[in-house]
Amino acid sequence: MLFVGINPGLWSAATGWHFARPGNRFWPALHRGGFTPRLLHPSEQDELPALGLGITNLVARASARADELAAAELVDGARELTDTVARYRPRWVAVVGVTAYRIGFARPKAGFGPQPEPLAGARLWVLPNPSGLNAHYTPQTLGVAFAELRAATRQE
Fold first, then answer.
1. pLDDT averages per 10-residue partition of the chain, 156 residues
2. Which of 8, 10, 34, 125 has a CA-to-CA distance to 70 between 20 and 30 Å?
3. What is the dihedral of CA 95, 6, 12, 30, to 10 degrees?
4. Strands in the chain per DSSP E
5. CA dihedral of residues 66, 72, 75, 77 (deg, nearest 10)
6. Which backbone phi and psi does 106 adopt, to 5 degrees?
7. Residue 82 contacts residue 31 (beta carbons within 8 Å)
8. How many Å separate Cα 52 from the centre of its chain?
9. 152 CB burial (10 A radius; 0-12, 13-18, 19+)
10. What does pTM read for this prediction?
11. Is residue 61 a contact partner of residue 7, using CB atoms and an 8 Å limit?
12. Neighbour order of strands in the sheet with 92-96
């Protein structure tokens, strides 16, 4: 499973850890969803490969908010992600952020959950953005969304 964030926030860029800002709900959702045996701190991201998990970003440029990215950056990032997936061949890819996915992959009507088209041979899933700025999702509902993905990966 390869998790794909939108881009590093300023806190993540400063620490070098994905989803590092206090208040970001990625790590709790990952645990609540059943992907990790315990809640990991962002500084423990190097433990993910042993669990069959990877993590990257769609766009490398850091920003305070994802909406500061230009559409062209997301499109370029989607092309680079496709190349990365083709090279490393994960079985699953989960993009964490539906708006970035819609723009980057030119899928304006895409929703959450499984996507009909694979990404370079990998099953593709879109999850809600776990940023604390995303008020539409609570830590509990994010955990449920991650758990649905986990359940789907176990059905293979």
1. 96 95 92 97 97 97 92 98 98 96 97 97 95 75 96 90
2. 125
3. -20
4. 2-5, 54-57, 92-96, 113-114, 123-127
5. -60
6. 55, 50
7. no
8. 15
9. middle
10. 0.95
11. yes
12. 54-57, 2-5, 92-96, 123-127, 113-114
Length of the chain: 156
* Nearest by Cα to 6 from 137, 80, 102, 100: 100
In DSSP terms, 94 is beta-bridged to 3, 125
Six token digits for residue 111: 């929703």
Helix segments in 49-124, DSSP class H = 71-88, 98-104
Q: What are phi and psi of 112, to 5 degrees?
A: -75, 155
Instruction: Tell me the three state secondary structure of residue 49.
Output: helix
Q: Whose structure tokens read 């909406």?
A: 67
Amino acid identity of 96?
A: V
